[in-house]
Amino acid sequence: MRAKIIEISHEKAVVVIEDSNPSLANALRRAVTSEVPIFAVDEVIFFENTTPFFDEYIAHRLAMIPLKTDLNIVRVDPERTVVLELNKEAKEPIEVIYSGDLESSDPLIVPANEKIPIIKMRKGQRIRLQAIARLGRGKDHSKWQPAAAIGYSYMPIYELDSSLKKDCDISPCEACIEEKKDVLLVNYPVKCPGCLEALERCRLDKPDKVKRKWDESKIILRYESTGSLSASDIFLEAVNQLKLKFSDFLNKVG
To answer: Which CATH superfamily is domain 38-143 in?
Structure first.
């Protein structure tokens, strides 16, 4: 099994797993969502709450706020806890409390986005609490999942009638197209940005002139980061967790 990075940034990743099969791709998908450790709020202590929102409702919202995570802390001090404090009194007729209003005891472990709304308060209403964040994994609760919108599919292969160069806009695929007599062959469309979308539009417009098949030895894995870790760190840590599991398995059966 080989992994070819097609696109990777802080927010999203597109990876092609070659010489693979669905069971291996699914193992990597599950590692991304379930085995990568990140921080999330796990306990909330309320000292004062005069808002119309129940404590449980606010605690749930706090738990689902992605927190930036430093993997060095994960390796050095996996039992670390971080306290995020909130102490607010509404001064305006309507005041919104955002994730950026949480004050963390660790400057490295803070909300990934400061503009996530938590609650609205009317003038004079108060809330004072401590939210305790701990390390966890997605297999224990979804609040510890570092990635979202994750999925995989076989690599599509397109065969197009050569006349489609005039009938469809497939200009994003110029570097991916291979001409064979009267047929245009695209067997790795994710290499060119926008190519896959252009081919799908063409297939829907001219279904009689476009054939789509699937290469079952190449699997496209896509996901987006929630903000706790970058997409590249998620991928590397997921691979590391898989290696540890395989090594542990071999030791037990050996």
So the answer is: DNA-directed RNA polymerase, insert domain (2.170.120.12)
